[in-house]
Amino acid sequence: MPMTEVFRIGxxxxxxxIGANSTPLVxxxxxxxxxxxxxxxxxxxxxxxxxxxxxxESLAQYLLKGEQVSATIEGAHIEExxxxxxxxxxxxxxxxxxxxxxxxxxxxxxxPPAPPPPPKPAPRAPxxxxxxxxxxxxxxx
Length: 141
Fold this sequence. Notes:
The protein has 141 residues and is mainly β. The chain is 4% helix and 48% strand. The chain has one helix and five strands.
C-alpha cells in the first residue's frame, strides 16, 4: 500500500544511469517523523527513495538537502546491507511514485530584485529676481 508523507531531503539527489538503456535513476535520502502514540516522542524515520525516468532526472536539480517535499512511496520495505565495519545494517527503501516540492530553501530561492531607484526631480526653471515686471498682465485678479 503506498504511503504519502511530508519528508525532508537528507542529502542532494544523486543521479545515476542503470542498464543497457541508460535509464535515469535518482536516489533520495528522505526523513520523516512517523506518528506515535499520544505524548510519545516521535523518532525520525529514514527512507532511501528511488525515482526513475527522464522526469526524475530533470527534477534532481531541485531535490536538494533540506528541501521539504510531499512524496508517495510504494513498496516500502526493509533491506539488510553490510556496513564498512563488517556488521549488518538495515535500511528502509521504496519507489517514489509522486513527489512535490513544498517549501524552498535558501539555495533554491533567488533573492528578490532590488527596487528601482527613485525618479530624479525635474529641473526647475530659473527664478527671476526682477520683481513684478516679468509677470503677465492678463492675470484676472
